[in-house]
Amino acid sequence: MQRAAMHTQLHRAQTFLAVVDFNSYTRAAQYLGISKAMASLHVKALEEALGVALLIRNTRTLALTENGEAFYDEFKEIVSDIGTAFDSVMHRRNRISGKLRISTTSEYGERFILPLLPAFAAQYPEVTLGYHVNSSLNDLVAEKLDLVVRLGNLADSGFKSRKLADFDIVLVATPAFLARHPVQCPADLEAVPWVANSNLQRPTQWLLQHASGAEAAVTGPMAFESNSSTAIRAMALSSLGVAVLPGWLVAAELATGALQRLLPAYALPRQAVSVVFPNSRHVPRKTRVFIDFLCARLGAAAD
């Protein structure tokens, strides 16, 4: 039976069940929001489709035929199973449970995400957490991830996103490197080697903004590139070149003097921390509560 025909027969069977349950075409029609004539037509059409009589009608009462009784009992059980299925899904929707698969970068995850997971697990004990590192946005679908946490400005995609926080990025180098390659103004950056982030489209091209509002665009030669901020920090510490890194990632090195901030009167664009998740009409509750959980705790954490 084709889907359209099945849909029609289900409507007719629903009418038949209501007529039997209410023992009245009038009350069944009122319950279903249709006319009494339409209810009668539904039952007659169902009988014609089945090729049997289901009801014995007289002026005062309705009675089931043997076939009608068998059909009523079987279809009533099917309706009960459908109701059970709806109740089960709605119960699972209201219970926050299931496996939640998340992904983020190694450095940010270790610093900000992993420390939060025990509290989330304690608050939602029926959620099993799966933690992945450095999965791409494409892996949202391929690896069936529920969400990924990403740093920086996001390219347009078919996914939904929500901003969690902002953080500063800084231009740094070692004192030894700066002794060999003094940087006194933005133009000097175009003549010194860079340790670059290969995740970026233009990893050595930056726009610096002075405290006065003046802007300076710079592009430097690349000496080394990596998609790992840890590797970039390590190469910067080895005096291989200047690097742009999250302030929170090099705070300790800046405090000890192992790295120095270049051109402190200039600032680089602040970067966003965003959570990205599939563009679905119904976002699972486990995903929604985890996003709310992150928003509540990361709003100031990366500043």
Write the layout of secondary structure elements.
Layout lengths: L2 H20 L2 H8 L3 H15 L4 E3 L4 E3 L1 H29 L3 E7 L1 H8 L3 H7 L3 E7 L5 H4 L4 E5 L8 E8 L1 E5 L1 H6 L13 E4 L7 E6 L4 E5 L2 E5 L2 H9 L4 E5 L4 H6 L3 E2 L4 E2 L3 E7 L7 H14 L5
Parallel strand pairs: 3-4, 3-5, 8-11, 8-12
Antiparallel strand pairs: 1-2, 5-15, 6-15, 7-12, 7-13, 9-10, 9-14
Written overview of the protein:
The chain contains eleven helices and 15 strands. By secondary structure, the protein is α/β, with parallel strands linked by helices. The strands form four sheets. A five-stranded mixed sheet has the order 4-3-5-15-6. Strands 11-8-12-7-13 form a five-stranded mixed sheet. A three-stranded antiparallel sheet has the order 10-9-14, with no helix packed on it. Strand 1 and strand 2 form a beta hairpin. Helix 1 packs across helix 2, helix 1 packs across helix 3 and helix 2 packs across helix 3. The radius of gyration is 33 Å and the shape is rod-shaped. The model has no long low-confidence stretch (mean pLDDT 88).
State the low-pLDDT regions, or none.
none
Supply the CATH class of the largest domain: Alpha Beta
Global Rg: 33 Å
Q: Strands of the biggest beta sheet: in what spatial order? A: 4-3-5-15-6
Question: How many structural domains are formed by the residues?
Answer: 3
Tell the overall outline: rod-shaped
State the share of residues found in helices, binned by percent: 40-55%
Structural class: alpha/beta
Strand content: 15-25%
Q: Any guess at the CATH architecture of the largest domain? A: 3-Layer(aba) Sandwich
Number of helices: 11
Kindly report the CATH topology of the largest domain: D-Maltodextrin-Binding Protein, domain 2
Mean pLDDT: 88
Major β-sheet, in short?
5 strands, mixed
Distance between the ends:
61 Å
Number of strands: 15
